[in-house]
Amino acid sequence: MEKATVVVIGGGATGVGILRDLAMRGVDVMLVEKRDLINGASSRYHGLLHSGGRYAVKDQEAAKECIEENTILRKIGKSCVEASGGMFVRLDSDDPDYEQAWVEGCKVSGIEAKHIDLDEAFRLEPRLSKHVVSAYLVPDAAIDGFRMSWQNVDSAKRYGGRLKTYTEVIGILKDGDEVHGIKVRDAFSGEEYEIGCDILINAGGGWAGKIAEMAGLEVGVQPDKGTLLAFNQRIANHVVNRLHKSSDGDIFVPHGSITILGTTSMSIPDAEDTSTSREEVEKLLSIGEQTFEHLRDYRLLRCFAG
Ligand SMILES: Cc1cc2nc3c(=O)[nH]c(=O)nc-3n(C[C@H](O)[C@H](O)[C@H](O)COP(=O)(O)OP(=O)(O)OC[C@H]3O[C@@H](n4cnc5c(N)ncnc54)[C@H](O)[C@@H]3O)c2cc1C
User: 120-126: long-range contacts (C-beta < 8 A, 24 or more apart)?
Assistant: First the structure.
């Protein structure tokens, strides 16, 4: 039987990060992914390397983690990060009290939020709505999830880490309460076989609850789905966030020559569901055009969900 000291289930951002980290520490580690790499949320996402600004009011612990990780990723993952910077803008229809709470939240969380006057804001982002009444610069950035994951794997392989794609975990092997391996199915040949391990890591994202079930464990995971829109050009130079209580469709992330607007959010029974609907597209456009009034003039390339 094939063996590894540690087996990691799931080839998303979490799994590939663990694979690389363990391989660099000299641990004999193997990652198994049921489809191709980053089949889950790690590619069907917004690609925002958060400064933490989005969480500065409602979850300051998360905000602090964001700014710490943001700083690390800019150093060790330079080629995956587009350091565009971010701008938070409040519209005249948004609650001014929230702005004060947000400024305070950024301070407490260690996020540099620099207030700029409106002339400067419109100079930096000429397409912004004239309803913008307040603007701040933050260290948001864009991150390429595909490149980041593949580079993690390439690096892990150089340290001896192993990867099997199109290999679905269909069972967890136990001796009493102790896990000693997994049963997998090859997606191409249909062959089923076992892989032994001392430690098993569940990095299954939205599928983590189902994976835990295979070991007879109950982990409460409620998958959540969000829809995003990709436009055919850069609408903004910065990541532009609406400065109000976090809501749907309020962030524009420029990636290279396109812009991604998102996201909606809804609970779904099964993480496999990546469907989108016309209603969600319309909702995103309606909210988005409050920040960029001419949004509907841009060509919509595609709509996707994760
Ligand atoms: C719409 C949306 C937008 C988002 N935007 C952002 C953003 O801008 N910035 C940000 O930081 N975060 C964002 N997130 C959150 C971020 O995408 C997730 O936190 C992150 O991708 C989770 O990574 P993961 O590796 O844990 O899970 P996933 O990327 O979902 O990986 C899980 C993997 O496990 C595999 N798997 C499942 N079952 C099995 C099995 N039985 N056998 C083998 N493999 C299996 C799946 O195929 C999948 O590849 C967003 C999320 C969504 C949904």
Answer: 121/87, 121/89, 124/87, 124/237, 124/238, 125/87, 125/236, 125/237, 125/238, 125/240
Tens of pLDDT, residue by residue over 22-37, are: 999 999 999 999 999 9
Cβ neighbors of 174 (< 8 A, separation 6 or more) are 180, 215, 216
Tell me the domains of the chain and their CATH numbers.
2-43+146-214 (3.50.50.60), 76-142+223-305 (3.30.9.10)
Q: Are strands 239-242 and 81-82 parallel, antiparallel or unpaired?
A: unpaired
Ligand 1, atom 34: closest residue by C-alpha: 10
Q: Are 8 and 203 within 8 A, CB to CB?
A: yes
- Sheet containing 141-143: which strands, arranged edge to edge? 48-49, 141-143, 81-82
Type of residue at 1? M
Between the alpha carbon of residue 114 and those of residues 73, 85, 120, 145, 261, the distances in Å are 22, 11, 12, 28, 23
How far apart are the C-alpha atoms of 257 and 240, rounded to whole Å?
A: 16
Centre of ligand 1 from the C-alpha of residue 90, in Å: 30
The two tokens of residue 188 are: 């191409």
Are 241 and 259 spatial neighbours (Cβ–Cβ below 8 Å)? no
Q: Is the CB of 204 under 6 A from ligand 1?
A: yes
pTM: 0.96
